Amino acid sequence: SWQVDADVYAVVGSVMAGNNGNIYCHTSGKITTVRTDNTVSWVKIIRGNGLYVAAGNSSYGKYANIWISSDGLSWQEAMSSSACAITDIAYGNGKFVAVTGEKTIFISQGGSIWQSRSVSMNAEIVGFGAGKFVAATDLNAPYSSADGITWKRCSGNILYASMLEYGDNKFTGIGGSGWVSQSADGSTWTT
After folding, report:
1. Cα 49 to Cα 163: distance, rounded to the nearest angstrom
2. CB atoms within 10 A of CB 119
3. Is 46 strand, coil or helix?
4. What would the DSSP string read from start to end of 120-172?
5. pTM of the complete model
6. What is the pLDDT of residues 9-43, one digit of tens each?
7. What is the distance between the alpha carbons of residues 188 and 175, in angstroms, rounded to a whole number?
8. Lowest-pLDDT range, 12-21, 50-59, 143-152?
9. Which of 2, 89, 120, 185 shows its CA 20 to 30 Å from the CA of 102?
């Protein structure tokens, strides 16, 4: 089991990221700190395209950081940007998409080269399933995209969601105060 001195923001397999800037790896029955940077607060860690991808922000403000690793032990910086802070990240259709809560996303085909793109939404959270990315804005508006670049406003709302996942053939947005929003196709949402 995991026992570390940090608020845990994400665990993927044997790799964990915390709000204290550390990335940990659980191997051979012990936890090892493999990356330390007390200027970064990690938002999420995901796995895709054979990589672990950790997304976070500088403790100095709006300064996005993305680090990658093929084994969870050795990490390298893939991107840093002072444009805006990352609020969530997802992987699907061979792409990584990081949203910022502003009209900017960061997108990568393989994980090592990232591009900033302007979009028409202020997405706070993002998920992937059924062949598409789905995002929710700070105003509860759902959007979907097959390629992570072109986004379409969907019907309904994803109320106060802090998490967006796909499972059991449906998307689910879970928010504070017990709000649950769901969609079978990512395009029509009910609460």
Report:
1. 22
2. 20
3. strand
4. SS-EEEEEEETTEEEEEETTS-EEEESSSSS-EEPBS--TTEEEEEEETTEEE
5. 0.89
6. 556 777 877 777 788 888 777 887 888 777 788 88
7. 18
8. 12-21
9. 185
The phi-psi region of residue 165 (left if phi > 0; otherwise alpha if psi is between -120 and 50; otherwise beta) is beta
Six token digits for residue 170: 């449906």
**Is 66 in contact with 54 (CB distance < 8 Å)?**
yes
Residue 102 to residue 111: CA distance in whole angstroms: 21
The candidate with the shortest Cα–Cα distance to 158, out of 126, 183, 181, is: 181
Residue with token string 């900033």: 116
pLDDT over 80 at 87, yes or no: yes
Of 139 and 106, which is predicted with more confidence? 106
Q: Assess contact for 143 and 123: CB atoms under 8 A.
A: yes
